[in-house]
Request: fold
Amino acid sequence: MNVTEQSKKVSPSEVSLLRLYLLRGGYLLIVVGLGITKWPEFINRSGSWELMEGIVQCMLLAFWALCVLGLRYPLQMLPVLLWELAWKTVWLIIVALPIWTSGRMDDATMDMVTANLWVVVFPFVIPWRFVFANYVRKLGDRWV
Reply:
């Protein structure tokens, strides 16, 4: 690694303790939110789910478990928060915004918009300098 590459690298120790606590707060928001809304549905279900409902529920429970890990390893689990930020932002722009601008917003879609708007917290929590240094500028792993 040459001097230029070393200067671009941001080590985990350079992420402030405040930022780590903010990240943990973001993970905690997800852990508590999904814990309150999804665990009771999962535990108290009285039959099988339809195919897509089952997929969504299981993905959300797996996401919940990864966010629990994020409480302990906030920087290592950053891709989980980046995925959350990405899919919710895309959904809000591609799906919800056209429905809203056309005046066809129904209650179910509005409920989903409200749930997904929590994503506005994450751009303020994510340590972007660390993300760019370690996921964008850093050389990728070798292919062969």
Summary: The mean pLDDT is 91. Helices lie at 3-8, 17-37, 39-43, 51-72, 78-101, 107-116, 122-125, 128-137. The first helix runs from residue 3 to 8.
